[in-house]
Automatic annotation (TrEMBL):
PANTHER family: NB-ARC DOMAIN-CONTAINING PROTEIN (PTHR36766:SF58), PLANT BROAD-SPECTRUM MILDEW RESISTANCE PROTEIN RPW8 (PTHR36766). This is NB-ARC domain-containing protein. Residues 133-267 form the NB-ARC domain. Keywords: Plant defense. GO terms for molecular function: ADP binding. It comes from the Eukaryota. InterPro entries: NB-ARC, P-loop_NTPase. The lineage of its organism: Eukaryota, Viridiplantae, Streptophyta, Embryophyta, Tracheophyta. Pfam families: NB-ARC. One of its GO terms (biological process) is defense response.
Amino acid sequence: MECLSPFLGEILRPMCDSMCSRVVNAIRFKSNVQALKKVMEKLVELSCNINYDHKDKSFSLKLMGWQRNSDEVITKARLKLEERRLSRKLVTIARMLEKEGLDLLDMVAVATAHERVEHVPGVSVLYQTTASNMLGKIIYGLRSSEVQKIGIWGMGGVGKTTLVRTLNNKLHEEAAIQPFGLVIFATASKDFDPRTVQKQIAERLDIDTRLEETVERLARRIYVRLEKENNFLLILDDVWKDIDLDLLGIPRTEEKKGSKIILTSRMLNY
């Protein structure tokens, strides 16, 4: 028996190695399939969202080139899935196309004409003397090169939200002469969630957001998009605590000349 042990070991080892290899390959295949299906869904979604009719011909060709490559990868991926012959390389290529598609989508958003200011539904305070005077002071601050941030503080119910909505809509009415390339209105709320505020900002910027995208990744995309504007005004309403604007992806106003931020809050020291 002692003589047979090494002999049996030599026979069984290749069998075990082969079995382990098949198990590992099966796990990898399943993982690759799941990853590829997820990316394919995103590629199809991006294909539907991108507008290929662009006035810049070279950019249009770039968009169409991406679409062609995307279609080829999707077709090849479906075939490989049917044949159960899937490589990690194909998943990597698909992910690269997904990233390129998202970047192109952001570029399309920048190139597409959009309203500099969007109307926000709400009651106006233009004909209320005290509120109208306050509005005048805010507008003066917005036009001053020495003012970068404006804080509006007061107890709940005094009309802070109504005031900034009126300001936003006044800028909307004066869109042709107001000084900002883009005005963004977002609400923080008591239960502040960075992702929720980011989504409001991203929607205003026509940035496509993904459920699995991290706050940091979306912040980078928002930052890059806002950096392409000459200047911007961010109106952040209903702030209850300190907010890290870097986390949201908002460029610093001291670095982005002409850009301003307005915050409304019940808290005096935020």
